[in-house]
Amino acid sequence: MEDDTGIRELITCALQSGGYTAKGFPDGKSFFQRVQEEQPALILLDIMLPDEDGISILKRLKSDAATAEIPVIMLSAKSSEIDKVTGLENGADDYITKPFGIMELLSRVKAVLRRSHVQKPEQQQVLSAHDLTIDLNQRTVVYLETEIVLTYKEFELLSYLVRNRGSAISRDRLLEQVWGFSYEGETRTVDAHVKTLRQKLEAAGCTNLIHTVRGYGYKIGG
């Protein structure tokens, strides 16, 4: 979704030339009506829009069960670290700063789609740690008899930590494995998600599950 007609048409044509089916939207109203109907494989979302800013739209997408798992790449002329962090913390899968090259755009799109469609049939479907049960198929988390509602990234983060229980995982590794990419200095994204994840776990009575490894990262005890 991009309000600049020229850029919107350029991106649409570039995606179509890359073998994708693409549709551009100038504003949030027309976009939301279509996305509910068609469930796209990926969304490119500009931050600066006329009727509603991209971060607000991103939050709406991630809070709706019907669209929460659709990967999103943010597009913005804003290049500051805080703008990138804000997008990532609210569920974006990647962030591209304008101006960008068409080859870079297509490469990022391909990478995000590849990550979102990875299937591992041999992967264990239920994880557990300290009375916490994670169902990877149903994407549910239950502590004793209490279900804990998590965002998409919180679920991925918790699952990765539990899957690697007993091992200390660096912030850089978590950013790479859960978000699929790394931006130097932006591991605060990991810290912010761990904070909210801990709050939700503790509210359900699951305390002291995630341990901080000072100056390095996090771990879940064996």
UniProtKB/TrEMBL annotation:
One of its GO terms (biological process) is regulation of DNA-templated transcription. Residues 1-113 form the Response regulatory domain. Coiled coil: none annotated. SUPFAM superfamilies: C-terminal effector domain of the bipartite response regulators (SSF46894), CheY-like (SSF52172). One of its GO terms (molecular function) is phosphorelay response regulator activity. PROSITE patterns: OMPR_PHOB, RESPONSE_REGULATORY. InterPro entries: CheY-like_superfamily, OmpR/PhoB-type_DNA-bd, Sig_transdc_resp-reg_C-effctor, Sig_transdc_resp-reg_receiver, WalR-like, WH-like_DNA-bd_sf. This is Stage 0 sporulation protein A homolog. It comes from Ruminococcus callidus ATCC 27760.
